[in-house]
Amino acid sequence: MRFRAPKSLPRTALAGAFLAVLSLTPAQAEEKENPCFTGQGSVKEVLDGCAAFIGSGATDKAQLVQAHSVRAMALSAIRDLDAAETELDAAIKLDDSNANLYFMRAAAHEAQKDYDKAIADLDAAIRIDADHGDFFLLRGMAYRDKGDLDRALSDANEKVKLDPKEATGYSMRGALYRLRKEYDQSIADFDHVIGIDRDSAKGYIDRGWVFVLKNDLDKAGADFDKALELHNNEPSALVGRGVVKSRKGKPTDGHADLALAKQIEPGIFEEIRKLGIQ
To answer: Which fold has domain 203-278?
Structure first.
């Protein structure tokens, strides 16, 4: 089972937290065939297996934390985040010194748009382990979604400092600079993203939109073309190329790209407007 990451948070971050929580191997588990510990079976089988273990009167704290955590993951998979939070409440009650448990619960709060609770849990996680960059990344997301861009930027800076070879911190910070209309700093961060992962279309798309906001249409067009070379018919890149064509030539020049983007992803124009593109 895998906990669903909030938008923009790499799923590998939560998967890593989950693996850290699950320190027992199936061979060590008291019930070696229980889907709760083996990870085999349907969501219902995993949920039932964990419930059976929790209700069995078992007293091993580590295994109980594991069972509640797995149930949280399974419940998240079916989008029952309230119940997932309840399981994580139980896990934290058993082990309030495990930073990853607070991180997982914060992710659920963030997905529920309960940003203050997410921040409180991430504060707790950081007090326990201030060297984990993803804790700062998620807290920065929560501050961003609350509209506190200064604190969001501070946390993005910390993520970059802790994990300078990962693209995620630069990507988040570049997006924050874009929101703050600090376009040169934004471009510099997306340059880092592209340098780390030249085969991903996202960095080129993100940088392309900053060039559009700066009205540097030649550079924007080159980035969108590269993104489409890497990921054929990617909707955001199609919109970008269509916008560049329309602004550089006749208003109708980008119509085909825009129409195709809308056909592939009907809500794409609303997403682009959130970037400040009109």
So the answer is: 1.25.40
